User: Fold these one by one.
Assistant:
Number 1:
Amino acid sequence: MKSIKYSKDADAALIELSHAAIDHAKESGPFIIHFSKNRTPVLLEILNFSEILEQLELAVYGKSIAKVLEINEQRIRELAALNKLFQQYLEERFTGQVGKLFGEISEYLAREQIRLH
């Protein structure tokens, strides 16, 4: 890559790939690729660059947010399962089955790889 420039007036990024003379160009959506006579890419123009950057940011942040939500949903399921087991513990505590329930909780925590800190 030879240089990267941004034209605020045109809202376009210009990425110079070589110093060869430009012979022709092909456009696809917001991209214009300029080629030399031997069809080597010389210059890449990205039109509406600020809009494309916003879309990329949304995609990146959107994935991050989705991952956080996914992790939180998993954590909620884990806490709900622990709550259920704890309620069972309280009920069974009075019937003398505490050891059995602690064993089930320990097995669940180990199986789900949950660590209580």
Number 2:
Amino acid sequence: MTQSLFAWAMLLSAGPCGPRFDEPKRAQPPTREPASLAGQINALEKEFQKKEEELSRRISASKDPAERSKLCQEYRELRASREKQFLELVRKNPKDTAALKALKLVVERGDTGKNARRP
């Protein structure tokens, strides 16, 4: 009898050893699937649109010609970067129907200045 009381006392003092059923299981973080091409294009378009609007405001507010020139150069670089990223997405997914939208954006809003590539 003493041994069984001793065994029960040891078990009770050790606490729960197995899984605790009173605590909810932690939710596993969702695995991020790669976004569809259309989703990537829309996200890039929104990102660049915000940056272009902000740069455009800064150019309009600028009174110093040197600063304005610097901001215009930054704007041209942003447009070139956008084109490069859109074309990279198209090259990775040439058979996706959303690639047409990316190409359309490049053609419509592409660099038409002296930096534009000519065939």
Number 3:
Amino acid sequence: MTRGIALTMLLVSCVGCGVPDSEVPAAAQKIFRERCFGCHGADGQKRGGFASILDTNALLDAEVIVAGDADSSVLIEEVESGSMPKTGDSLTTGQISILRRWINGGMQAAASG
């Protein structure tokens, strides 16, 4: 492997690393509010098997996320393929990395305050 390819792979794998683990839940919630809530929650209508993207239990019940396993989570599959969000730009690699870290880390709630 050439040095340039190795460096590129390292940088790509670390996108979203600048967010400390303690801030991942709040960062994930911010992505959900800004990019997903307009279709998945604002009107309370059930879409994708759940009524609100902000309700972790509903996401688990609808099998949209798999606790501790981002690779098996439909949510990650949808955002990585560009299928979601349906409006606006696709999520950035950094945003997807944060969602992966949130799922793999046990989907902790954001600290209030």
